[in-house]
Amino acid sequence: MPDPAPNQVLVQTLFSAISPGTEVMIYRGQFPEDLNVDETIPSLAGPFRYPLRYGYSAAGQVIATGRQVDRAWEGRLVFSFQPHASHFLACLDELLPVPAGIKPESAVFLANMETAVNLCLDGAPLLGERVVVFGQGMVGLLTAALLAQFPLASLVSLDRYPLRRKASLEAGVHACLDADAPDILEQLRLIQPDGADLAFELSGSPAALDQAIASAAFTGRVVIGSWYGKKQANLDLGGRFHRSRIRLVSSQVSSLAPELSGRWTKGRRFEVAWEMLRRLSPAGLITHRLPVSEARAAYSLLDETPEEAIQVVFEY
Prior knowledge:
Strand content: 15-25%
Number of helices: 10
Structural class: alpha/beta
CATH class of the largest domain: Alpha Beta
Low-confidence stretches: none
CATH topology of the largest domain: Rossmann fold
Helix content: 25-40%
Radius of gyration: 20 Å
CATH superfamily of the largest domain: NAD(P)-binding Rossmann-like Domain
Largest sheet: 7 strands, mixed
Mean pLDDT: 92
């Protein structure tokens, strides 16, 4: 590794988390070539083009500092939106100090927890509402866990895989349904006969977006947190959608909704995300810990047998 520049630090990574929805889609080459990898994270600048360094959930320890950086940073536990790697160089504005009491295994969930917090901000669940969450991958599970803390009338989740459905029930949802059931919408209507006031589509499947719209009540909201990449969404908007005044909300964590910007900042959102990590302790959702040398096996697992995993992390 090169020495840090005067304004940089060198971080030795302890853990980095794979974000399975996004990373597997990129692993499969399902990304749109006309987009930059990320427009807000310096370590992910540039276009989608192989070979591609990726990942954005790294927790590690500062082991060296540049001459302009306070030596007090040495030894500090930090989080950074960095690709999977054993070490990385970063400026201080690319680091988030991990608060006391949060272990590095929990800190690697910060990126997905920030997304879950943002989804709740955009969905704005209300007292006594009926809510449904499509998809119980990592973002879906964290979102469901946050929603379970609201005084909702009904909180239902859907997923294809039994392991995730079990974790969802443990997170506090009232019911978790098999998303592959042929009568899934009928099952959902038995639990929420008047439809959902608020639906979150977090499965990464365009077909689930159509189901989410069908599940919504009159004037209901559908928050779309999935990134579909090249996958196209075929929606049935010719039926009750038009007359039901259903509102579709695009939610993406790189920005805050304009109507919140007068009171909320990314810093405030991070504070809430850290507190939710402390409160929920999601490290128990880690199902696989692998050395980064076994990255091929990690991505093959998530690509070919996703039903066996919830959260995969690399250990260094």
